[in-house]
Amino acid sequence: MASPAAVRDVAPLHPVYLHQLYRDPAPEPEPLLPSVRRELLFFCRTLKWCILGFIFLASFLVLMWIIFHPSFPLLNVVSASMSPVSFTATAASADCNITLVLTNPNHHLAASYDRMEISLLYASQQVPLSKFHQPRVVQRKHSQTTLQANLSFFGIDLGGGVASAMKQDLDRGSLGLTIKIFSVIKFRNGKWKTKSRYMRAYCPGVSFGFVSSTRSGIFLNPYQECQVYLYSK
């Protein structure tokens, strides 16, 4: 049994009430001021419309590029004729007529060709023989145009080496020529048009077979496809 002194040393007991076991919850944050809310809402709406506008503009530009981006014209040598080639010393002469088909493959763009120049070259030496200037050509959308070029040459001085090489080709029964085309081209859709571009086309391997020196040449590769290039001025 505890002594009276030990009982006196024990701390007195105090009653504990229920409301002392809990703390008041943290105060709720004060609501945003109406002006701050309006500014935040305006910013969000502006950002949304800017994003939508950017997406619409980008889609529109891509669509316009797909529709109006011009495809290269197509050019083919469909027929050709050549008379026997005659020589006077180092000069050569022959009648030569070429038929080309120019195709505009664009479904949404018309094309116009200015200052078109068609040249005939002796293929193995790349020596120019004749030149033909084609009047202005205007093509509708997705259409074809036939071009007739008179590339005859008369008394063109080739020099001894080139004349000798051409005679050897004729003696072997064939003569290879190259056609080059240069033009300034524009594409148009209504009032909208592209800036002017240069067009260069190369038609290699235009060959004629000769069975004798007195008979006309036979065009060996009809529908010869040309290589077409476009580049900015």
From TrEMBL:
InterPro entries given for it? NDR1-like (IPR044839)
Major localization class: membrane
Give TM segment ranges. Answer: 47-68
Record's keyword annotation contains Phosphoprotein: no
Q: Which GO terms describe its cellular component?
A: membrane
Protein localization: Membrane
Q: Which UniProt keywords apply?
A: Membrane, Transmembrane, Transmembrane helix
What is the protein's name according to its record?
Late embryogenesis abundant protein LEA-2 subgroup domain-containing protein
